[in-house]
Amino acid sequence: MSAALLIDILLWGSVLGVGLIAFRRGPAVFKASLREGSMDFINIVPRIALGVIGSGYIAAIIPQEVITGWLGPDSGWLGVASAVVAGAATPGGPVIGFSIGTVALKSGGGVPQVVAYVVAWALFAFQRVILWEIPFMPARFVWFRCAVSVPFPFVAAAIAMVIGRP
Amino acid sequence: MRKPIGWSTIIIAVLVAVSAGLVWRRDGTAGVLDILTHDLSLFGGILPRVLAGCLLGALISEILPHEKVSRSLGPKSGLMGLLIGTAFGAILPGGPFTAYPVASALLAVGADFGATIAMVVSWTLIGYGRAVAWEIPIMGTDFTLWRIVISLPLPVLAGALGRFVYVRLYPKPAMKDDET
What is the DSSP letter of B74? Predict the structure, then answer.
């Protein structure tokens, strides 16, 4: 719980700090950005609601065994490709993603495949994209960013194959 | 930011409806309500952070000097712009509720897709927040540091690829203050 508290302090501290800078530019600037921020909030709430409540249902129909199955001991590029799909399809937050990676490492998954999994999870985990990225960013940017990022879990796996184990 | 209902929202809504239907068929009404109450309380907990993120985004886009941002992070900013985006993403504190509003604000005041992609990818791959809070405790320090070293070139490469594709996909620059 203390980590959550720290995050909140950091977050609201940043808002306060930036708000102070805006206020010193003039109360009109400050008021305008507060109004704009509140309007953004009102517009975003329905999308966040859909994301939070919806991703719970999507996560519930993806069994975790399927994800771990995709991260099997297949050591070639096919293994990397299925690790990338697994990373994108992993439901839940960082605890689940990293735990699956650890289990895969311990149960004989290849290191490049696990790297590809972790990188793909960081880039594409569907719950983060639905819940955070799409509500806050222009949709065109999100799809573009995801499409452009597709090669990079493979690049990371290739680097891992070249430079070897940790 | 964006209009409330777009194609993305519709696609997500359909996905959610189908998934909820499958949950209902498997677990019945109780299963559906279980997930609903759990996620509603999660939603309540998230809301203040979403508000903070929105305020942060609006304030930042208000106080950032637009010409300076489009010069150092715009389409003409070159490798330097991608490096600045990467560095910014790596040091940005907080979680997704800060990263995405700030990235959106940068887009609004003149950063191009390339630099913003570098920032978002850098935040997610080499940002210290998630690594310190989750990856090191669960996956171990050795793996995490090694994974971050491998990831170091990726944000700049992703940003460069983004720019490369963007100018071919949208040949006519949409930026009106684009100096040619």
Answer: S
Tell how far CA A64 is from the center of its chain: 18
Mark whether A66 and A9 lie in a shared domain: no
Contacts B94 to A, Cβ<8 Å: 7, 10-11, 14
B132 touches A: beta carbon within 8 Å: no
Q: Looking at the 3D structure of chain B, how many domains does it have? A: 2
Q: What percent of chain A has pLDDT over 70?
A: 96
CA–CA separation, A136 vs B54, rounded Å? 8
- Min Cα separation B87/chain A (Å): 17
Residues A102, B138 contacting (CB under 8 angstroms): yes
CB contact under 8 A, A43 and B4: yes
Give the model's pLDDT for residue A4.
76
Residue range of the domain that includes A100: 62-163
Q: Is the whole model's pTM more than 0.90, yes or no?
A: no
Structural domain count, chain A: 2
CA-based torsion, B40, B42, B43, B45: positive or negative: positive
Give residue B80's domain range. Answer: 64-174
Considering the domain architecture, whether residues B33 and B72 belong to the same structural domain is answered as no
- Say which of B6, B16, B150 has its CB closest to residue A160: B150
Tell me the pLDDT tens digit for each residue of A17-42.
Answer: 999 999 999 899 899 999 999 999 99
A vs B, Cβ pairs < 8 A, gives 242
Query: A105 and A37 in one domain?
Result: no
* Residue of B60, B151, B161 with shortest CB distance to A148: B161
